[in-house]
Design goal:
Blueprint (H helix, E strand, L loop, with lengths): L1 E6 L2 E3 L5 E9 L4 E9 L6 E7 L4 E3 L7 E6 L4 E6 L8 E9 L2 E4 L3 E5 L2
């Protein structure tokens, strides 16, 4: 089992920045990748960014150049640095961890981009 605790969401104006954190505990040795999904109002959940245990990362076209995913292995924590935020980035952001093909999820954190 893997437990994930997210933090860092909130309200920000367009053009602003936020950093989300996701701390993993439990069977962390089994995690092959971690990342972030989001689900906006009336939308399906979509992948935002992912980073493997080896450090390879990828992100959705909608956030490329604005969002950066990183990890601190010593802290078992993954970060999502979000810059140049747009109203369409408004969503609940969910952290996930892939362990032997099973996805474990965090509770979600709300990000609202509005003036």
């Amino acid at each position: 089992q893997v437990q994930l605790v997210e933090s860092g969401g909130g309200l920000v104006q367009p053009g602003g920045s936020l950093r989300l954190s996701c701390a993993a505990s439990g069977s962390i040795f089994s995690i092959s990748a971690m990342g972030w999904y989001r689900q906006g109002p009336g939308k399906q959940r979509e992948l935002v960014a992912v980073i493997t245990s080896g450090g390879t990362s990828n992100s959705a076209n909608a956030v490329k150049g604005r969002f950066t995913i990183s990890r601190d292995n010593a802290k078992n924590t993954v970060y999502l640095q979000m810059n140049s935020l747009k109203p369409e980035d408004t969503a609940v952001y969910y952290c996930y961890a892939d362990s032997h093909g099973v996805h474990f999820w965090g509770q979600g954190t709300q990000v609202t981009v509005s003036s």
